[in-house]
Amino acid sequence: MGLYQSRLKISHVLAALVFAFIYVNIPWESLYSMPFKDKQNYYDYLAYGQSVLSYLTFDRMLDYLLGEWLWHYILDNLIRNEYLTAESFFNYISFSLVFAYSLIVLSKANPIYLLFLFNPLVVDFGFTQLRHALSMVLIVTALFIRSRSIRIAVLALSALIHTSAILFIGLYFFSTWSVSSYLKNGKLHALRNKIIIASACISLAIGPALSVVLAWIGDRRSGDKDLSSSVSYLSFWIIVSFLFMLNLKRIQLNVFAILSLILLLTVAMTVITKGYSLRLLSVLFPFFIVLTANSAPRIRIPVVGVFLFYSIVQWMYWFRII
To answer: Helices 255-273 and 188-205: crossing angle, nearest 10°?
Structure first.
């Protein structure tokens, strides 16, 4: 059920390395004309903040997950002990994220689709949401590992860096089960219903239920923050999600297609539930590219055309032109 049917192609690895090298050497922060806020927060934490590990207690396994123990352990032992500079470490994360996303795209799509990765969502994710980006790198790495025990170990490490990894790991296994069921019974309506139900559950979980769940398990981040995006910003994703859902027969249905469809529909539903859609879009992005590239021409051509226009609007918004 992996991205590659056999082994990684050396040509794809080389292409991904070159693409990631070019990508991370673009001065994104200078182009943005101001420091990336979340990245600066990490610098301030390392320079002036007290290590989380010095005051949090880890009595249960759940504490290691909620405290995202591995992330702070790495920061303490690599950067605070001056084995590696913070700038170098963060650059390695950005490079790894772009490299991983490039391999996903190259696994199922024409190399020209790599250009789609030049998007503000990828820049913000790979260069500012560094903890989540590192977790995602481990999840993608696990997708390429054939040994089940090693794969599970890598996935567990990703959850110790960012708790949201649990959601995406669970979504992957749910997508695997859904595809397997569909291949056995051939019932497209049943598959569609599973996608809709899963999307609704996730949308509620990251929306109105999030604060309740975080407070119940004692997570320090519980609160009533509104991290939702506007309808205008999400309009493209809403339209595309319905377009794909109405044309399931014209899509190559596999694990990653189902995963993409669930995330797409979840993003559309956050307009109602007020969930954090940008984080989902950042994770979805390379899989969305593959989904689009492998769709029938009557779907692929209009989606690509509208996406190019939408990307221009995204960049204008990112550069604060509009």
So the answer is: 50
